[in-house]
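Subject: Cache domain-containing protein structure
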Amino acid sequence: MSNFKKHHKLHSKLLVSITLCITLTLLVSTTVYYFYYIRVEKEQAFEANHNSLTLRSKEVINMTSIAQSLAFQMYRSSTLSKLLYYPKPNVYDVTAAMTELNNYLNSMPYIESIYVFNPKSGTFYIASSQGQNGLFSKHELADTDIIRVLDHYQDYKPFTPIPRTYPLLSASDSGTGVEQASPDIAAYTYLCYDAINSNEAINSAVIVNVSAAWMNKEMAANPISGGTAYILDDQGRLLSGTTLTDETLNEKEQLWLHTRVKKQETGYFVEDFHGKRSLISYTSPDGLGWQYISVTPYESVIKMASVIRNAMLLIAAIIALAGFVASWLLSKMLYTPIGQIVVHMNSLESEKRNSMYTIRQNILRNVIRGIRNLPAGEEPERLRELGITFQFDKDYRLVLLRIDEYTRWQSERGPDLLPYKFAIMNIASEICGQTYRVETVDMDEDSVLLMLNILDPAEHTDTVLLETLLRQIREACFEYLKLSVSLTYSAITSQPERLHLLYRQVQDASMHRFFQGHGCIINAQNTTDEDIQNTYVYPSDKEKKCWIHYCLVIRRMHTVCSKNC
């Protein structure tokens, strides 16, 4: 199994990478779209909630106008005025007034009940669609909460609805077991009263209770977003939109209610409500000072986005799984042709690696000997590929190392002498590499050439450092290899075309080791100057004079001989 993975690693990586790219792209796009859809769905849910809450606010305000008109009409009614102001109206007046109240009740289905209160007699005249009807004293009244409202009427704004609940039957009736079948009534109470006197006590009052069930048709659970509605009234109470009961809040919920909702402009945010992540939508205060709040479970808001997300994740998982299976299968099919290419490439790479040193040495050797010109144009890149980092256009000098008594060493060690030359090249590179950029070349026979890029400008005038390094090379070769080497160094130049001339110079100068002895260090520039100074000049003038003198002597000899004869 491990061999299979090794052989098919290239193809598996290729196909798996493509699969992962597709899967990753799908996941990233899904993430982006998911958050975009969430934002859109939150805005849509907010718009739906806001429209419903705004409609409910308008209905409450409209109902306030209707209740106000109705209360004024009752106050102007001569029939009902007898109930409001007479301490003891007769039975006929009461019957006529109750009939009129029932007529109002029957003609307006949204009215739950109407109370007429006469403080002088302490009597409530009630017309209701269910529960208590007729005349009741304060002690007989089932709706005891209305007594509290009347006692504290100054705490409420005139004609501002008071959301509340009250029981249908009194405590005495509930004791008979009817209480279980008669739940409390949720209603919006509109209070109209006459309190024009010195002690600001109520002279009379008309109370209209509007059915919360009728008004909550749009306020109940929103079928679009599934939200639950709440009312934040002018008293700062948070009430359920359906039951009008006080909502219990923890400290965190109280905090965001008073800091992020109360008296704020219309908006929405996501927060925990009753331990559940919810979208909180709210309206700004209306003409009554009320705000309407809708709480929608966050899961229902992002339901569609979650469905899309899950579907895309499933698709991504299927693509990834299919891609892995396909990569495993296709790698078998692709292995044969690609495997042959890989084997061939590995073979070429191995050959290139094995012949790299030989190619580099041959190129440098041919350039130094003048057989090949220095690369120009784009060809220097070829030198760098071969590992040749020497800069021919920078300051450089050549150092020629020649093995002394090479013929004897060759006869004694034969083919084993080549590793010694490699060792000499390594020693020279190690010693000079800290000061120069070094390139070593095997020049065949007994010679090794060092090409040194000059890094220190002081070398143009001072060769002490160079000669110190050359002595270290000589001593290291003798100590580790038991070889004596003579070293010849050239002058400094920055002209690539002078490379061959410098090599010939150090090569010729190295011949002076026959005069200076083995292990010598020769400055090629000095030997050139000495050769120029010691150049032999043929004495042609002296030769001419000698020839003339010779001719004169011969002539005289012939003259003497002729006289004697």
